[in-house]
Each structure stands twice: as structure tokens, then as C-alpha cells.
Amino acid sequence: MEKKLHPSTLCVHAGYSPANGEPRQMPIIQSTTFKYTTSDEMGRLFDLEASGYFYTRLQNPTNDHVAARLAALEGGVAGMLTSSGQAANFFACFNICEAGSHMITTSAIYGGTYNLFGVTFPKMGIEVTFIDQDASDEEIEAAFRPNTKLLFGETLTNPGVRVLDIERLARIAHKHGVPLIVDNTFPTPVNLRPIEFGADIVTHSTTKYLDGHGTTVGGAIIDSGNFDWEAHADKFPGLTTPDESYHGLTYTKKFGKLAYITKATSQLMRDLGSIQSPQNAFYLNLGIQTLAVRMKHICASAQMVAEYLHDHPAVEWIHFPGLKDDSDYALAQKYMPEGTCGVMALALKGDRERAKRFMDHLQLVTIETHVADCHTCILHPASHTHRQLSDQQLREAGVDPGLMRLSIGLEDPRDIIADLEQALRVE
Ligand SMILES: *Cc1c(COP(=O)(O)O)cnc(C)c1O
User: Fold this and answer.
1) How many angstroms does the Cα of residue 181 sit away from the middle of ligand 1?
2) Torsional sign, CA 107, 113, 114, 118
3) Closest CA to 116 of 205, 235, 240, 217
4) CA of 158 relative to ligand 1 center, distance in Å
5) Residues 83-99 pLDDT 10s
6) Which of 116, 163, 229, 258 has the fewest CB neighbours in a 10 Å radius?
7) 84 lines ligand 1 (CB under 6 A)
8) Ligand 1 contact via 115 beta carbon (within 6 Å)
9) By three-state DSSP, how is residue 183 classified?
10) CA distance 116 to 126
């Protein structure tokens, strides 16, 4: 029934339906543990023979309600929350990769994810190939190896705001017997549901628009349930052969379409423990409830601001996929016809000092290591988030050293434009 409802309705209803006399608002179950009457009842939970709560590191009712809400919004079969977006992308890949595995990712991705894949994964024995998301099918296909386990990309890249051609990448991934995992943080499921276009697994930094108020670091993973692990059983032994840490249970046989999320919860969360606190899940849910109205306002304002900057003589270039002459306009119309997000990338004419003077003169717009919240903010990745990357790596990640990332919030767009205008007057 939920699948037929529109996103704004799902934002307030999916994943939690109180019975008579139960709280209308999703309650915070701030408890580490849950009680049982007999030892056997508890034992069955530990063997994954019965489902139920016993320890919050593995599962908690508040977290599960919010995860179910996100799964409904994305059109997936199951979801899980993690302590951060970094943990979500780590778990999403590590659930099907191990030492000796290989994975492929687009190179235009968030700096933290670039570091995770480029530096930390190799230390764990996972080889990673970075590809240009605009490369031809042949070039991308040449990156696949017999031990390749997945293809990864960002639906709208941070900070370059490039649009991923999900259908094309899904087709290539499936041809090589691996899932496509996409990070859908920037568009949110209100503007884009990648599973409808063939993506298999969706991740989020819920820290951004989903929370939307700059209160809570968190992440999420949603599985479509569509990828046929059994059809490629030799590639994914962690899902298709017995898990000795659960008395020889095989996830695909026992849990079917829920195999991937069940393994990530019962094995990775058990061992690596990056759970989101129920209190944070509650804040996240407050954000999700207003997500659809916020995204609508933010996208309309961002369009106004982008058009203003596009025509401003001090602006060297601006990239916003909602602009008609943008290189990604057609892709954005296909995948996100109702709007992309509030983030845009731009560079001013003149040297880097000019950009610094511009940022320092902004009054309403603040300099923040954040993006996609209710306050309009600006950041210079080369000197902030991406400063660990060399100029060469910056360019590979699609980040021009002069690029500034502007993220439009919930203020009146006329006030945002007025603030930009006075700061642009400073030569
Ligand atoms: C912020 C971000 C992340 C990392 O999320 P955290 O919640 O900060 O750990 C991952 N992917 C994208 C696209 C992001 O914007």
C-alpha cells in the first residue's frame, strides 16, 4: 500500500503506524537492551531463528522505524541506519567485499568517500579502480576483473553537482554480474529514486537534507532486494555460503530478498558497531517529516540564485544542473524532473584571493564545512573539505581548485541574492 503513496505522504507516515493509544509521534526507545522471560527465547534471537530486539547495537525499534521510512521512500525492501554517511558507504561495500576483492567507483565523489576507497580500502586488501563517469561503455567495462564485486557512484556528485547516468551504469554493472551502489545524499528520495532506474543499493549521508537542520550526523543503506546474489553465487560467498558465526546459516537461503541488509546488520553491525543512537534517529525522523516541503522550497530558491549568478559578470563559471545551458541539464531532466538539490558549484573571475575576499564579505551566507541544511552556506573545497587531495587528485575528483560550493537553505531567496550581490561588489 505504501508504494502507491507520494513521497511527501511517505515522509510523515511510512514505517510507523501506531495502534490505539500509542504515541502519534515516533517514540525514542532509549534503551540498550530488551527483556525476555525464558533463556530459550533470547537464544533463538541470537541464532537469527526468531526476530526481535535484544541489544541496540544490532537493532532498535526507533532506528528500525526510521530505516523502514527511508526504505519506503526509496522503494527498497529493507534499510538500516548507521552512525554516519561514511559508515553507510563503508558497510554498503564491505558487506560484499573483502581482502582480495576489487571494486570500481566513479572518481567524482565526496572527499571522505574518495579517501575511504583510495586509501583505507587498499590497506584492507580491497583494490579500487576509479573511473570517469563520462567515459564510454567500453572504457568502463575495461575496468572489470574476475574479482570485481561492485560499481559505485554518487547520483549527484559532491561538490561538483554532476548527474550520474544511473541506467547506463546499472546496465554495465549487471552485464558484469555485480550490483550498482549509489550514494543518493544530494537529491534525496523526494527528487530521485535510483532503484526505479536500476540501482541495486542506495546509501545516504542523512547528515545532509534528510536531517536538514544541521543537528545530527548519520547514514543509511537501503537495499532494493532486486540483485540476484544466487545467480552470481561464486562472487558473493559471504551471502551465498554458510556463515560459521551463525551456526552455518546461509543469508540468501534463509532471508531471500532481505539477505543483504540482514547480513550487514547481524554481521557487520555486530562486529564493527557503527549504530546510530535512537535519539539521533528521532531527530533524523523530524527532518524527514518535512523533507518534501523543504526540498521544494530549496530547489526553487536554488534555481533563482543560480540564474542570478549565471548572468553576473563577476562569475567565471557556474555549474547547476537546473540551468538550461548546463552540460548535465538533459540528464537532470530525465532523472530529477522536479528539481535536483540546493547545491551549486561556481568560480569567480580573478585569483583565489578574490574568492576569499568574496566569502569573507558574506554576511547572511556563512562559511561552513556543511552542505544541504536549512542555512545557506559556502565552502571552498580546495582549502577545506578536500585539502588532503593533491591538485591532480582534486581534478580527478572533478573539483577545480577555484571551485566554491554554495548550498542554498530555507531563507528567502531575495535575501540570499542581496547578500551575494553586496559581496560580489568587493573587487
Ligand atoms: C557528507 C557526505 C558523505 C559523508 O557523510 P557523513 O555523514 O559526513 O559521514 C558521504 N557522501 C556524500 C555525498 C556526502 O555529501
Assistant:
1) 15
2) negative
3) 205
4) 9
5) 999 999 999 999 999 99
6) 258
7) yes
8) no
9) strand
10) 11
